[in-house]
Design a protein that fits this description.
- There is one protein chain.
- The protein is of the alpha/beta class.
- Helix content is 34%, strand content 23%.
- The chain is built from 8 helices and 14 strands.
- Strand 5 and strand 6 form a beta hairpin.
- The longest helix is centred in the last third of the chain and has 24 residues.
């Protein structure tokens, strides 16, 4: 069976998997590799190629590699495959590098060239969009009406959907479909609907400082500040949804990312403060959806 390779590139690690043409991940296996994001240009690109080759070798049945879909953090020129990251000590050495052309050049000089489809291509997108495409592939009911996919982790990733298509503009759609920079409270949504938003709020209440959300969640039943923090987060998330649903009345909201592991701690606060009749759905596996979305990226996006 023909197949795709999907990569979810982060600052520390790269998650990768082989996605079969039928939309399933080979052996349901997601592998993790170091990203080497602080290294020089050649090291970063050769590392990505090495990961692609490893994934290729894991799928040893007959079939052609149809394409490679890559989730890459922004800023990034996704259409042309050019990295625009600069000044954050991650991927600085490939700033303004046409990553797509460089990888294609490597692949055309590697053993992989004999096993790729005639229409082979490499496509890039942000992780939130690939996450939403993966959810669409796994849940046909999301292809009807409007939906918004939101990934909550180090920041607030988002994608607007209508009738199974990604929207990056249009009535009620945030610029590029990204809600993270919409003004909220004293700054923007990203500063509140994120891991750091939860951590900062908790640390403002407590003398026992923490640096990760898991530590706060573990204290939920014994620390009032933890309880207050998650209740506040649920209310903040509800207010954010109220803002975006006022302009884009989505039937479904799909939540993904690391923060939803603590969903039960802010669920009541979230649901009691939403002013719109919308379904809140949780992703079963954010990483899986993102990699399946890497395959779905090769379908038409309006």
């Amino acid at each position: 069976m023909n197949f795709y390779i999907g990569l979810d590139v982060g600052g520390t690690n790269i998650k990768a998997g082989t996605i079969l043409e039928n939309g399933t991940i080979f052996n349901n296996n997601i592998n993790m590799y170091p990203s080497l994001s602080k290294e020089n240009k050649n090291t970063i690109l050769k590392n990505i190629l090495s990961i692609i080759e490893k994934e290729f070798s894991l799928y040893n049945l007959n079939g052609k590699l149809l394409g490679i879909g890559i989730a890459f953090p922004g800023p990034f020129d996704y259409q042309n495959g050019i990295c625009k990251i600069k000044g954050i000590n991650k991927y600085d050495s490939i700033y303004n590098v046409n990553t797509k052309k460089e990888l294609l050049k490597y692949i055309n000089n590697s053993p992989l060239k004999n096993n790729i489809d005639d229409n082979f291509d490499i496509l890039f997108e942000n992780d939130a969009t690939l996450f939403s495409l993966g959810e669409l592939e796994q849940n046909d009911f999301l292809k009807n009406d409007k939906a918004i996919a939101i990934c909550i982790g180090t920041g607030t990733g988002s994608t607007y959907l209508e009738n199974g298509k990604v929207l990056k503009s249009g009535k009620g759609v945030a610029e590029n479909g990204w809600i993270y920079k919409i003004p909220f409270k004293k700054s923007i949504i990203d500063d509140y609907i994120s891991a750091r938003g939860i951590i900062n709020f908790y640390n403002s209440l407590s003398n026992n400082k923490v640096d990760n959300v898991k530590d706060i969640s573990l204290k939920y039943n014994i620390d009032e500040n933890s309880n207050i923090t998650f209740n506040n987060f649920g209310k903040d998330l509800a207010n954010v949804l109220n803002i975006i649903l006022k302009h884009f009345n989505a039937k479904n909201i799909i939540l993904g990312g690391q923060i939803i592991k603590s969903y039960s701690l802010f669920k009541d606060s979230l649901l009691s403060n939403i002013n719109f009749n919308t379904n809140i759905l949780l992703s079963k596996d954010t990483s899986k959806s993102t990699l399946i979305g890497a395959m779905a990226l090769f379908k038409k996006i309006d």
